[in-house]
Write a structure and sequence with these properties.
The chain has helices at residues 3-14, 31-41, 60-72, 90-106, 108-111, 164-172, 194-203, 226-232, 242-254, 259-265, 280-284, 336-343, 347-353, 366-379, 392-401, 415-430, 440-448, 471-481; strands at residues 49-53, 82-87, 114-117, 122-125, 130-136, 149-153, 180-184, 210-214, 297-303, 311-319, 322-332, 357-359, 381-387, 408-410, 434-435, 451-453, 459-461. The protein is α/β, with parallel strands linked by helices. It folds into two domains: 3-215, P-loop containing nucleotide triphosphate hydrolases (Rossmann fold, 3-Layer(aba) Sandwich), CATH 3.40.50; 281-481, Nucleotidyltransferase, domain 5, CATH 3.30.420. It has an eight-stranded mixed sheet, with helices on both faces. Strands 9, 10, 11, 12, 13, 14 and 15 form a seven-stranded mixed sheet that branches. β10 and β11 form a beta hairpin. α1 (3-14) crosses α2 (31-41), α9 packs antiparallel against α10 (259-265) and α14 packs across α15 (392-401). The longest helix has 17 residues, at 90-106. It is elongated. The model is unreliable at 485-492 (pLDDT under 50).
Length: 504
């Protein structure tokens, strides 16, 4: 019998349903729970981390409690080892402990070999002297521990890319040869949050020791789609009440203000808490990778920043009936991690992945940006660089210093100049004419962008009211804005013409 099968057999033989109408009955694992356990413990590469993401009320905490017992006095118990389950709040941490405690008390066999210490939220497996504790971020008890198994409950509640409590747990596991970290949670709200970063990393399948099971409804599904409910709620009809989710779905369908919350908690989708300028679905529909070749015609938008903030250069290549978008971003190297933590944006992760260029020192040097633009002009046929006048004098001085002659045009940030550019950007996204490749920083800019409208209906991107940095989207709008119909005809394939024929 494999490790995974032994864990499943132990849970079903000795763990009792701790609460509800079937309290005291043997715990029978559902198919999705059993598959997760088998994949974790029977991974031929070995498992270092495992993620299970389902919507709320699908038996996550009970599964955590059962896995804890499998390591406490079951087939995974290791002599003199330590287990922890961690949660953001004391209440959530207490919930997991109480469920494990109830399972022990309901089982005559387990009660004989487990000592319960309620005051410390602790269980001690007497067979192998294994200690389990439930801890929370609120109690600050992560330091000083050395768990061979750490289970994180509702890590999706963490906002931003870092969390000191979780990092303390990860560091504490470093003393073991083969530690295991399991995160069981509803999805985080946005792409920049910690659990989203973990899930996206797992989806890339670079590390075979990471097991990830994500149960999320299709992005474009309707709120009343019962098939979508089932995808995100594999325990629908058992742990999760069908009538309950039906009632919430009908309310969310009637009240648009409830829609995002329903998609997050019931459909296990990432959401934006606000109404962005561009919808996520439409923006992601333009995620085809761009194609840029030496000598191609290109227009560019440059959004310079304060000395310590994000600088964006976005290139737009009109070809093949589309606009191929290649963005470049810069930040100072010094203080990058602190900036990631304070703004709750994974700049440091993106830098490691190659999406962000860091500049040595505490500030952005204008000569670096000037050199990058000069290299663009050398490789491609740069028609025009649109720029915001703010801080442009330093940039121009550096262009002069390196002898670069760049065709440039100022681009106002008010309604007059920005309104046509915003309209064009919105239209191209809706028509799926962009190819931006899903660049994560540009995705962030698009997701948080908000527009301001004047009495005449003209719109402009509004940095102050946006919910994230939007420098990349501003630069993209400027690049598109200097491409008027009079200035350029986008080349297209002759095969787009239904009457086209090859000459005989």
């Amino acid at each position: 019998m494999t490790r995974g099968k032994k864990v499943c057999a132990f849970i079903e033989a000795y763990c009792k349903i701790p609460e509800g109408a079937q309290v005291g009955q043997p715990m029978k694992l559902m198919a999705f729970q059993k598959k997760f356990i088998l994949d974790v413990y029977d991974n031929p590469h070995g498992t270092s981390r495992a993620y299970l993401s389902v919507a709320r009320k699908n038996g996550k905490s009970a599964l955590i409690a059962a896995v804890v017992l499998a390591h406490l006095i079951g087939p995974e118990a290791k002599q003199n080892s330590q287990i922890i389950s961690g949660a953001r709040s004391r209440d959530q941490a207490s919930l997991v402990f109480k469920l494990a405690e109830k399972m022990v008390r309901l089982s005559p066999e387990l009660s004989e070999i487990v000592r319960i210490v309620p005051s410390q939220k602790m269980l001690i497996g007497l067979v192998c002297n294994v200690e389990y504790k439930a801890i929370s971020a609120e109690s600050g008890t992560a330091h000083g521990l050395s768990p061979v198994l750490a289970i994180l409950d509702e890590v999706g509640q963490v906002r931003g890319p870092h969390d000191a409590f979780i990092e303390a747990i990860e560091t504490a596991q470093g003393a073991h040869h083969d530690p295991l970290l399991i995160a069981i949670s509803t999805q985080a709200a946005t792409d920049g949050d910690l659990f989203s970063i973990w899930l996206d990393d797992a989806a890339a399948a670079v590390d075979k020791r990471i097991v990830s099971h994500l149960h999320t409804a299709p992005k474009d599904c309707k709120i009343l789609d019962k098939k979508a409910w089932k995808v995100a709620n594999p325990a629908l009809g058992k742990f999760r009440s069908l009538q309950d989710i039906k009632d919430f779905a009908q309310q969310a369908d009637r009240l648009p203000a409830k829609a995002n919350s329903f998609r997050w908690l019931f459909l296990n989708q990432r959401i934006e808490a606000q109404s962005p300028f561009l919808s996520r679905a439409e923006w992601e529909a333009n995620s085809t990778p761009p194609v840029a070749e030496a000598g191609d015609v290109v227009f560019a938008g440059l959004d310079l920043s304060a000395s310590r903030d994000l600088t964006a250069l976005v290139l737009a290549f009109p070809k093949d009936g589309h606009y191929h978008i290649v963005p470049h971003f810069w930040l100072p190297e010094d203080g990058l991690r602190d900036k990631s933590q304070s703004e709750k944006v994974p700049y440091d992760v993106w830098a490691d992945q190659g999406y962000l260029t860091t500049i040595s020192g505490p500030v952005i040097q204008p000569e670096v940006i000037a050199m990058a633009v000069a290299e663009v002009a050398e490789e491609y046929s740069l028609q025009l660089l649109a720029y915001d006048r703010w801080r442009i004098s330093d940039f121009k001085r550096e262009l002069d210093n390196i002898g670069a002659e760049i065709p440039m045009q100022p681009f106002g940030q008010g309604f007059k100049d920005m309104a046509p550019a915003v309209d064009k950007l919105e239209q191209l996204v809706a028509e799926r004419k962009l190819r931006h490749g899903g660049h994560p920083i540009l995705n962030m800019c698009a997701a948080g962008a908000v527009v301001q409208t004047d009495p005449a209906g003209n719109r402009k991107l509004h940095k102050a009211k946006s919910y994230s940095k939007i420098d990349g989207l501003v630069a993209l709008a400027m690049a598109l804005g200097v491409m008027s119909a009079e200035d350029i005809l986008i080349p297209s394939s002759p095969w787009d013409d239904p009457e086209f024929k090859l000459a005989v």
